[in-house]
Amino acid sequence: MVQYMDRNSGFAQWNANKNATAKKSAFGGFMWWFLIFVGVWWLLGSWMTPKTKDVPVENAPVIDLSNVPATTIENDDISAQVRGLRISNIALKDFNVSASDSTPVTLLGTDGAYAEIGVLANGTTAPTATTVWKNKDGVFTWRNSDGVEFLRTITTDNYVIIINDTIRNGTAHDISVAPYGRIVRANDVINSAGVSTGAIAYENTDIERIDWRKMDRRSYAYTTTTGFIGFADQYWETIVALNNLDQTMTLKKVGTNYDADVVAGAVAIAPNATANISYSIYAGPLEQGALDTATKYIAGIDDTVDYGWFGFLARPMLWFINTLNALVMNYGVAIILMTLILRMLMWKLTRKSYASMIAMQKMQPELQRIQKLYANDKMRLQMEMMKIYQTHKMSPMSGCLPMLIQIPIFFALYKALLVSVQMRSAHFLWIKDLATMDPYFILPILMGATMWLQQYLQSAQKAKSADKNDITAQTQRMMRWMPILFTVMFAWMPAGLVLYWTVSNIFGIVQMYIIKHQK
Question: At which of 240, 275, 306 does a domain end?
Fold first, then answer.
């Protein structure tokens, strides 16, 4: 991208001549870049440092579940432990903890973390977390002293756990039950730069995301006709949904744990009648295919991936990378191929930009002449500049379009790499995980070197201005610091993103050579 910020890009030339009479020093320009660098460094440090904070609130009572027998449910994707009303230790069989640890990723696997599904009863007694159920052929039953019978079946589909309750009222009077779901997770959170993590609530077709630090300070409540609630990390999420209308959802911190609750409106059950209630729990990856499959149980869950502002580009870009990976069987090679394809699609546009830069180069003597001639008359200077642009049929912004196109592509790819579960632990040469920084900083150095070479090739044939007050010359001198600044910034970026930028720079160098040779 550095070629589009060069002194002959049009925009830089326009801005330089616009401020031709301003007295600026090269040192002052450098200080501005230095301040920007420090600001970016601070922001990156703030985003990427794991942040946890405990608020001194009343701890939840400890419940002894030693008398409640544990049962394991599983399919090809997950296995989980069921102990009465609670479900925990949900292992994702297809995902390992890391490239060097083959232990499956486990959700709600720490002490005090669980999902609890049950009912609040009026007119009778409902089962609690310590209730011991009878298990016969996968059907859990419990009868209270009033003669009300509770039957529960638990099935799994992909990463969704489906709970179906049947409640039979054996009393001679009406009773009512209010279904509820709860997810409690430990305070083992890690904030990820650029990805929204924390609590998540789906309220009347709107996604609400609450950062962990906000939950440390206050609680949140929602009233909705239908929705779900839970927690999302960078790659995984645990969601609970009730298939009932009129729900109240709350998010709060209890002791050192985070708590997400949903309670539905009461269901009346007449004497000798039954009521059927269903619940769904999603515990799995933030992967679009798995979430699309889960929508038949939890409506709206396919919108929980945080693709950012440029989601309309990030989603197809991620699909494109996955498709290329299916062909070449390596995500690093897939990113390289995608970069080359994108740059080829922009070939004509970039060629036009280079042609504009060459034309701007030819206009330099004339622009510099009027800059000196009308240094004390800004209005006349602008008018004369416009005449020159009109004579040469040029626009000050003619060389900036490729840069404007690459900016959303850059941020979309950044998001796509951060949220891609498939990219996690993806290998490429010496890099073990393309979703994290290059541990040896080789790619950032290569990126900075190719950026410098690209900049050098553009300015190698241009005469240096002898006028220290020439804003155009000052801009060029400041641009020399850009490769260093970008190298430091990209050192902590995902390696896949740095790979994209490096390959794009190399392609730009080759393209520049071809176009100049043709000219």
Answer: 306
pLDDT tens per residue, range 264-321: 999 999 999 999 999 999 999 999 999 999 999 999 999 998 888 888 888 888 899 9
pLDDT digits (tens, 9 = 90+) for 418-437: 888 888 878 888 888 887 88
CB atoms near residue 348 (< 10 Å): 9
Q: In this structure, are 92 and 210 located in the same domain? A: yes
Among 273, 306, 339, residue at a domain's last position? 306
- Among 36, 309, 281, 330, CA closest to 180: 281
Residue-wise over 453-481: b if at least 16 C-beta within 10 A, else e? bbbeebeeeeeebeeeebbbbbbbbbbee
Residue type at 69? P
Question: What residues form DSSP beta bridges with 157?
Answer: 160
Identify the residue whose tokens are 């191929």. Answer: 337
391 inside domain: no
Q: At what angle do helices 26-48 and 471-479 cross, to 10 degrees?
A: 40
CB atoms within 10 A of CB 446: 19
